[in-house]
Amino acid sequence: MARAGLSRPEGAALAAAGLFALRPLQTESVAYVVQRSESLASGLYLAALLLLLRRDEATGRWWRVALLAGALALHALGLGAKPMVVTLPIAWLLHGAVVPARGEAALPAWRRVLVRVPPALPLIALSVAGGYATVAGFGSGTSISEGFAIPSLSASSYAAT
Fold first, then answer.
1. Range of the domain at 15
2. Count of C-beta atoms within a 10 Å radius of residue 46
3. Are residues 25 and 50 in the same domain?
4. 113 and 42 share one domain
5. 73 and 17 within one domain
6. 156 and 82, same structural domain?
7. The pTM is what?
8. Do both 5 and 78 map to the same domain?
9. What single-letter DSSP state applies at residue 148?
10. pLDDT by residue (tens digit) across 73-107?
11. Cα(28)–Cα(31) distance, rounded to whole angstroms?
12. Which of 89, 87, 58, 57 shows the shortest CA–CA distance to 71?
C-alpha cells in the first residue's frame, strides 16, 4: 500500500485484510477439505509474489538472486498444487507497470516492465512447462464437459485457446 502512494497504508491494509477475511475469494476452499490445493496454491502464489516485490526493492545483487530463486521454488511448488499459478510472472510484470518500486517513479511503465523481463524468463518458462504438462496430462478418460475428450482437439490446440 505504501508503494501505491498512501501516506498511511496501515488503515487501507487493515481494511483490505478485513474484507478478505469476511468473504474469501472462493468459499469452496473454506467449506471443503478437498480444496486444500486451492488454499495451498493461493498461499504459494502470494508468497512468491511477495518475494518478487521484495526483489524489486532489494539493492544487493546476491540478495536479488536469492529472492528470485526463492520465488522460483515457490512458483514450482504452487504449480504442483494447482495450475492457476501459471499467471504469476504476468501478474508481477503487470504490477511493475502499474505500481512503481522505490526509485522507479520517473521511469515509464514499459521501461519498468522491460527491466523485469530477464528475471521473469525462468518463471515464464516454468509456467509454460507446467501449463503444458497439465494440459497434456489429461487423458482420454476425462469427462466430455472438460473438452479434452473431443477427438479433433489436441492438447496444444486447447492450450492455445
1. 1-31
2. 13
3. no
4. yes
5. no
6. yes
7. 0.70
8. no
9. T
10. 999 999 988 888 999 999 999 999 999 888 888 89
11. 5
12. 89
- Per-residue pLDDT reduced to its tens digit, 1-60: 556 677 787 888 888 877 777 765 655 555 665 567 888 899 999 999 999 999 999 989
Half-sphere exposure (Cβ direction) of 85: Cα atoms closer than 13 Å: 33
Tell which residue, 76, 15, 13, 23, has the closest CA to residue 45. Answer: 76
Cell numbers standing for residue 115: 527491466
Residues 97 and 100: their CA atoms lie apart, in Å, by: 7
Q: Residues 69-96, buried b or exposed e (16+ Cβ, 10 A)? A: ebbbebbbbbbebbbebbebbeebbebb
Nearest-CA neighbor of 52 among 11, 90, 26?
90
Say how many residues make up the chain.
161
Same domain, 148 and 94: yes
- The domain total for the chain is 2
Exposure string of 98-127, with b = 16+ CB inside 10 Å and e = fewer, is ebbbeebeeeeeeebbeebeebbeebeebb
Which letter does DSSP use for residue 34 in this model? G
